[in-house]
Amino acid sequence: MNAHGKNRQMTAPIETAAGPAQPMILNMGPQHPSTHGVLRVVLELDGEIVRKARPVIGYLHTGIEKSCESKTYSQAITLTDRIDYLAPLSNNLGYCLAVEKLLGLEVPKRAQYIRVLLTELTRIASHLVWLGTHAIDLGAMSVFLYSFREREEIMKIFEFVAGQRMMTSYFRIGGLALEPPPGWLDRVRRVVESMPGHVDEYEDLLTRNRIWMARTQGVGVLSAADAIAMGVSGPMLRGSGIAHDTRKAFPYSSYDEFDFQIPTQTAGDCYARYLVRIAEIRESVKIVRQAMEKVPAEGPIRAEAPGIVPPSREEMKTSIEGLIYHFKIFTEGFVPPPGEVYQVIESPRGELGVFVASDGSPKPYRVKFRTPSFVNLQSLPRLCEGRLIADVVACIGTTDIVLGEVDR
Amino acid sequence: MESQENDRNPAVEKLRAWDAEAVAEVITFRGETTVVVPVRHLRAAAEFLASEPSLRYSFLSDITTVDRFPLEPRFEVNYHLLALERKDRLRLKVMVPGNDPALPTVIPVWPTANWHERENFDLFGIRFEGHPDLTRIVLPDDWEGHPLRKDYPVEGYR
Amino acid sequence: MEFISQHPVLVAAVVKVVVLLFVVMTALAYLTWLERKVVAHIQSRWGPYYVGAHGLLQPLADGIKFLFKEDVTPPASDRLIYLLAPFLALSLALTALGLIPFGPPGVRFPNGQPVFIVSDVSIGLLFLFAITSLGVYGVALAGWSSNSKYPLLGALRSSAQMISYEVSLTVSVVGVLLLAGTLNFNHIIEGQRGYWHWLRIVPHWYIVPQIVGFLCYLTAAIAETNRVPFDLPEAETELVAGFHTEYSSFKFAMFFMAEYANMITVSCLATILFFGGWLSPFPDRWTWQLYLPGAGLLALGVYCAYDSVTEMRGLARLQLSVVTLLALGGGALCLLPGVAPVIQGPFWFTAKVLGFLFFYIWIRGTLPRFRYDQLMSFGWKLLLPVSLANLVLTAAWFAWGWVRG
Amino acid sequence: MIFPAILFFVCALLAIVGAVMVILAREPIHSALALILVMMSLAVLYLLLGAEFIAAVQILVYAGAIMILFVTVIMVINAGVEERTDFSKIAKFAGLPLGFFLLLETAHWLYHSAIGAAIANGPGAHAEAFSTRELSTELFRRYLLPFEATSILILIAVLGALVLARKDE
Amino acid sequence: MSVIPISYYLVLSAVLFGLGVVAFVFKRNVITVFMSVELMLNAVNLAFVAFARAHGQVDGLAYVFFVIVVAAAEAAVGLAIVVMLAQNRESLNVERMNSLKF
Predict the structure, then answer these.
(1) pTM
(2) Partners of residue B115 in chain A, C-beta under 8 Å
(3) What CATH number should be reported for the domain whose range is D2-84+130-165?
(4) How many whole angstroms separate alpha carbon B110 and alpha carbon B57?
(5) Do residues A83 and A369 lie in contact, with contact meaning Cβ atoms separated by under 8 Å?
(6) Domain B4-106 maps to which CATH number in 3.30.460.80, 3.10.20.30, 3.40.50.11810, 3.40.50.150?
């Protein structure tokens, strides 16, 4: 019941609720068109001005970290897909790299390049979803459908390569799940060739659009110092002028062999973050192009690590060691040494950290996902307090949260 | 096994030079350095690491807990730090006893710790003293128990 | 029979109102179809497709769905006003259309009543503005009576928005009124007959001297009708659905229809004021234009015939055949020498109005939405001064007698 | 022509009912709606009296602008149900009958005065509808000074409203 | 009855004015009090138009025009004051507004 409803039903002699301005509490979410899932933001309004914003999360908490503890290392991969459902391969990669680090395992170059290629495609797909939803939040409807059209092509590549559109679980500990089917690179090429043109199209619709600029420039400003203090990462950090990218700072999976820029903007507002993400799509296209050059046509896609990485199908059928290892891996799992590692990758949303603690058993003792959305969302009140309701929408949009990742 | 060697990590050296008692133990594993800090030194050590000009661990990536039930001290709270300029990571580890687990908050040092601490409070029941709003974050407010503890039944309490 | 012969005005009015309501309701339904189709094609998708050929029965399906949906009235709402609001919105929107002349007054029934004009008021424009200015009540009362926060915010926004833009809307057409020297729609249209003397091929439409006023009018009209990029009262990503968040079923449909009716009204008004209403853009000596409507319909019929041949689904095929027959028959009818001149006025009027409607839909597929404060400052700080300047310049033009038509 | 008579009585009845509703309604928004009803009926009466322009202005300005302001303000400040307080007994037992008597007397006087017998509508009515052109000529010739004065008044009112509504921060 | 004398309009005007006075006296909420003033103005307008009709002159209409304009100005300022009152005081009851300052 809201303020005037209460008055209407009270029989006490109250003739008006007018009084020294009581703030109006507005529940934005958990069901709301622009909270991207089940985020709930409790807004304290003075007219249309947001005095206080408090994000309330947990509506999608599924206890993935707890579930990981009761699965073997390999089984837990499927759970990681569900964390950030817009960038499942990034999560796969982060987790696999963490376990590989724990094991001290080196992945063959071919698998590394394919991993880079696919995660960059994931980044493009994720940014496309962000662009579309952000644009529709601000009322630009067509961009949403354009970007989903292109994303669909990328999803088709995932389906072609991994057999699944979204929950791919394609990266495995020590390499990849399957040999990519022949002709897959042609598909990738087709998407990559057309992508810059499509990005130009989006930019035509938005970048110099006066309304778009008015809606995003100077909105949700996060200074560089604030960005660091709030621990935001990814495009949000780079939009505030800090050129930090895990792919450059702590290269993993051979990212050091690729040539790409870290796009940054200094304004720290929604427009800056928009520009950064658009530039990132272009950079990712560059990386995918290089990866296509680098990927050898032939070669192993899994590390040579008997007892950890399952042997190939043929080996399993022909050699007794292969059969035994296969059986042991899929019944008991493998045993890494006790210890703790924290592996960081640059997911589309920012710094995805995977902390894995092993106690020397076949199941991880503790897995923690440091998800960028969770931390980035924390900065939301700073972005939108003192501004209008419409800006809250813009701010949520450029924070680019995925609720699966926030709540885990 | 976790190797326990005296690393040449400059951060550890500086921390030790600043206050020898702040470094209880240094663990290096797979190239990651972990400094075990006693609870009472945590806040000061955090401030030092964040503000010392040659270190500048200004970015707190994560706070996470490992429950070593039934060992004591039961909880290991890990702080993952990042020095943006130097591109260096460091893990602070604090051992917290199982009965009445409590820690000083690091929000004044790293404001981002707010939600991380709430999450650890929610899932492990570790209190962060001085936290402005220590409430459950992902679970409902009336939830019983702390699910990521090892003695929490997987089926739940109810 | 005696009654009919004794009260020609009354009978003609009733007939015209009934026909107008029927036509407008159908037009509203197919306007939603058009909008969905055009926006879909802008966004590289198909739009309505499955219900009938080209989704032509989609409006019908929507209507049936609206009728059978559960009609929820929030328990804490102000019942009377909650019920009143959608009726108010729709009835005002439809009333406004009754003032529009859809064709020349010269075309008359046997009893001497004009066919295409429901009511010929001497100050028609003023009345139209009076009626549309009441449209705010539907929105404001809906938002208030729902007793919910999003609708309330939407209602507050829209009352502020509609009041603000009404000022610019009114001021922007005063230039035309100065040119026409009358408030009567027919006289305004008649004033646009002929050609500008300095350029014989440009019709004497008021858009030529009043281009600034037209642009102001267009902008203000989009804002008045709550369309993108000024659709803040119902900004779905901010206020869920704005003032009609709590409305369901047919009451929701009524708001929907009111919005589209308002779109039609402002398009009609733009056509009348700036584009010569039912006047043809071509000179009268070009007699072939008499057959344009018929030719258009025949072309549509041929296209539908082709389409029905290629259509795979049986029912859709049947439906397309019906449309084909209707179009061909209508086309043939329009070519008859007795009918062709009569149909000229409504044909050009409809064509112009459709152009505006298409423009509206096009904008919707292209632009993002303004923010509330930007909308307000745009209205007061840019639109109003510009339309005022336009008015002053036009007045000066007259005062010093630079040009007279 | 019985039509104007029917219209007159319907509208008069609606106006009176509306005015009574203004008094009886407990919620300000209902009062406002009743008042709008009064204004709309009056607009129709103006039409009957041949004052088209005034009718349009009545709807445009009164119902379309002023009452919208009222409604908006009621919504903004969230005015709830009205409190009923006792008022003086004199007002109740002397004032009301006296007022009613006064009304009757006025009506009686009006009905029997010379001017009242003039016919407003139908055959025998004074003239055709007022022309808007005539009214505007009158406004801009004879009443030019008051006209300009009112425009300045409006300006002052707008400024005053702005000053009042501005929050001092 | 085929014609309507002016007096009918005048009587209606008087009745409406009387009701406006009653509303003005009886209503307690500042906004409704304000509305009753508008009601009285409307009643007066009706009388003006009726008289204009009776005399066949447009002066009455001019007066109505001015009344409406002044009413608009009055509403703008008056409602601004009401909003101020609502923000600064607990109540909108006119009986409690017995001090100019607080």
Answers:
(1) 0.81
(2) 374-375, 378
(3) 1.20.120.1200
(4) 10
(5) yes
(6) 3.30.460.80
